[in-house]
Structures are given as C-alpha cells and as structure tokens.
Design a protein that fits this description.
By secondary structure, the chain is mostly helical. It has a domain of about 40 residues. It contains three helices and no strands. It is elongated, with a radius of gyration of 18 Å. About 0% of the residues are buried.
Length: about 80
C-alpha cells in the first residue's frame, strides 16, 4: 500500500460540509477515487466503441467487452506485480 499526504485548498464552506459528511476520511477518498477511475474507464471504453462503430466496425458483445476488461485488469496486475 502506498501512503500519500495530500494538501487541499477548499473554500471554507465546502471543507466544512465535506468534513461533516465524512468525505475527507481516507476510506471515503479511496472510494471516491475508485468510483471516478471506474467512470473514466467506462467513458474511455464507450469512446473506443463509438470510434470503432464510426469506422464501420461491428460493435462488441457484452461478453467480448467483459473479456477485454478482464484481460486489461490481468495485464495491469502483472505490470504492477499485484
């Protein structure tokens, strides 16, 4: 696990509200980062599919997409040694 120290500059009202909502805890920040990364990956995948369709390709099935995602995850795990 990597430990990072992050310094944020937020408007006072936003910092207070986020603190009161429990959003500035390490667990909450981890969850938000994971959700954002997932959303970003999905957006990238959708864009790639859109480009493929625009180029005249045949859209992938959900099974093919899932297989690609699994292959990507396995490759990342091998690259990071996780």
């Amino acid at each position: 696990m990597t430990t990072l120290e992050i310094k944020l500059s937020l408007p006072d009202s936003l910092a207070r509200e986020a603190q009161q909502a429990g959003l500035l805890t390490p667990e909450a920040l981890e969850m938000m980062l994971r959700e954002r990364l997932r959303a970003q990956r999905i957006a990238e995948l959708r864009e790639a599919v859109g480009q493929m369709v625009s180029a005249g390709g045949i859209p992938m099935t959900m099974e093919e997409i899932e297989a690609e995602i699994q292959a990507y995850r396995q490759e990342r795990q091998r690259a990071t040694g996780a």
